[in-house]
Amino acid sequence: MATDTLILTTQQVADRFNELAQQEKWFEIQDELFANNVKSIEPPNSKYLPNAEGKTAVREKGENWVKKVEALHSAQTSEPIVSSSHFAVTRKKDLTIREIGRIQVNQIMLYEVRNGLIVSEQFFY
Fold first, then answer.
1. 51: helix, strand or coil
2. CA-to-CA distance for 26 and 20, rounded, in angstroms?
3. Full set of structural domains in the chain with CATH
4. Which of 14, 66, 68, 120 qualifies as a cystine partner to 87, CB 3.0-4.6 A?
5. Are the C-beta atoms of residues 75 and 89 closer than 8 Å to each other?
6. Which three-class secondary structure state does DSSP give residue 121?
7. Terminal Cα-to-Cα distance of the chain (whole angstroms)
8. pLDDT for 67-96, tens place per residue?
9. Is 65 within 8 Å of 46 (Cβ atoms)?
């Protein structure tokens, strides 16, 4: 007997992303919403993080960043703005990073959704 697989719309992915982001559950977002071939793209000449491709590599990138965070003083993620296959949020963070010091990051995070999963995340800061 065949079962139907529910494919989430971009709006549904964005809504679930927002629910988890408001709880600072970033690894849960990756586990639940990222495609296996997801790409994570930083701005050109980023001095903080490299690009990564594939769910495992993107996870390692996030884990390596979290290990460098000495203190998260504040963080805020906006409600998503959704189009047909993309959604974007703004994220403001005030944090202390080992070997860098205290920084404030104000970024736009753009996500592309295909077949109900996030296939690309791109950061602008």
1. coil
2. 7
3. 10-124 (3.10.450.50)
4. 14
5. no
6. strand
7. 49
8. 999 999 999 999 999 999 999 999 999 999
9. no
Residue position matching structure tokens 């960043």: 65
What pLDDT shows up at residue 21?
Answer: 98
User: Is it the case that residue 43 has pLDDT exceeding 60?
Assistant: yes
Token digits of residue 65: 């960043």
Task: Tell the residue number behind the tokens 């793209």, with chain if given.
Answer: 41
C-alpha–C-alpha distance, residues 46 and 125, integer Å:
9
- Round the average pLDDT of the chain to a whole number and report it: 95
93: β partners = 75, 105
DSSP class per residue in 65-95:
HHHHEEEEEEEEEPPPEE-SSEEEEEEEEEE
User: Would you say residue 4 has pLDDT above 80?
Assistant: no
How far apart (Å, rounded) are the C-alpha atoms in residues 10 and 118? 9
